[in-house]
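INFO  loader      accepted 1 record
INFO  loader      residues=213
INFO  predictor   begin
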Amino acid sequence: MRSGEYWQTRAATAWSGTLEFANDWQWVFGLPPVIAAASTFLRGEGGVIINGHPAWDAFLVALAAFLVTAGGTYAWRFLFVAPYQMYQAVEQERDAAKIKLGHIEVTREKLTGLTDLRSIGISQFNEAPSTLGSLTAWHDKWRAWEQSVVAYLNDHFSPAEASLFHRLGKIPTHRFAQSEDAMHNHYLSCLSKELDILDKTVERHLPGSHVAR
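INFO  predictor   done
INFO  writer      dumping tokens
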């Protein structure tokens, strides 16, 4: 914060609440010194204060009491209260930034495991059943991956987010180049939808972190 901004902020902080305090407490802090000063220096004929008009005198005394209280309150707040309040505000901003940063770090840590599982799913997506010996072996490996994903989601994410992985909805009809038969193509469609769900989960927590397949 630049010097000019600092003093403007300090003045604004000191002013905040000054009039309210003066209005509530002028009879305690402002009225006694004003009456004492007026009785000493502004007596009129007959011993009355100022000019002898009670209503006018009462108004002027009340106004002076308010101004004295407001001026004294503002000076006190400017010299002592405002710097402390500004320091507290800075500390609160730092604490909030630390909490936010800590939350981001925790989020990154738990998403690292999820992105690792996603990478394994992508590898299986591109792996041909023939390399494993059969479609059954490919299917068993895929189911084991699904169980790992579900377990990780249950441990690190909310139940609502974990349940999204089971809601595949309508599976789009698409012919994948790497499919070896109709059943394998169906499995690839389901796996592709699951990978999309993981993509969206990561994107919700860390926008802009999408990784192309």
